[in-house]
Design goal:
3 helices, mainly alpha
Length: about 80
């Protein structure tokens, strides 16, 4: 009677004689859904524009409006990740 270590060693060495316990699934592979890169890019540019605008407004006009725009840019960032 073989030990577990000998059995594993034999399976590794004689791989053509292995016992496969799971059946091979020859069905079509599942269709993967990829995110839309163009929409992601457009929303990213919008987010960057809002951030740049927030920096200018925060520096030269109103800090409150600048922070409001930064918060809005973060909301757009969340939407960007969902696209």
């Amino acid at each position: 009677m073989k030990t577990e270590e000998q059995r594993i060693s034999d399976e590794l060495y004689y791989r053509d004689e292995r016992n496969v316990s799971t059946p091979i699934d020859n069905s079509k592979p599942k269709q993967l859904s990829y995110p839309d890169a163009k929409k992601h890019q457009i929303i990213s540019f919008i987010k960057s524009g809002i951030r740049i605008l927030a920096c200018f407004i925060g520096s030269f006009a109103s800090i409150e409006y600048g922070f409001f725009l930064l918060a809005a840019a973060e909301v757009v960032g969340v939407i960007e990740e969902l696209v």
